[in-house]
Write a structure and sequence with these properties.
mainly alpha
Length: 150
């Protein structure tokens, strides 16, 4: 039974990684061509890859799956589909129990995407200070706020 279960897990992950490779190829093509439709297609594939895993594989390669699902959310943002990015961000937080990824600059993935996908026109400096976002993103929002009000 153990061997059969382990074989099933390995087979599931092999299929998942093949699906992810397809999504990454399409994302790279979209980056090269500059067409947002490629990002949307890639994001949908990332979403499908996660959905195809099923509930029995929720504990497999958790961090790898988090990174891939995050790429799907970012691709929705690049495609301009903010509503779908918000929806998938909620699914991400639910599926991974509030666990977060950290960007190379130390910023929180969840805070950064939340700031980008929700309407924070009136976000005050103290509210933004509480978010773990990059200084460049914070500066851009401060710049937008300044020029909107002055």
């Amino acid at each position: 039974d153990f061997r059969q279960a382990r074989f099933q897990e390995m087979s599931t992950m092999r299929n998942y990684r093949g699906c992810i490779d397809d999504a990454l190829k399409i994302s790279d093509q979209a980056k090269g061509s500059g067409q947002s439709s490629g990002y949307r297609t890639s994001a949908k594939i990332f979403e499908r890859c996660e959905a195809d895993l099923g509930p029995e594989a929720t504990q497999l390669a958790r961090e790898e799956r988090m990174r891939n699902y995050a790429l799907g959310i970012i691709n929705y943002i690049k495609a301009g589909d903010i509503r779908r990015a918000q929806t998938n961000m909620k699914k991400f937080q639910k599926a991974f129990n509030g666990n977060d990824l950290y960007l190379p600059n130390g910023a929180s993935f969840i805070d950064s995407v939340t700031l980008l996908t929700t309407k924070h026109d009136d976000a005050s400096a103290p509210e933004m200070a509480m978010m773990n976002v990059s200084s460049a993103l914070r500066a851009e929002f401060n710049r937008m706020h300044f020029w909107k009000n002055n």
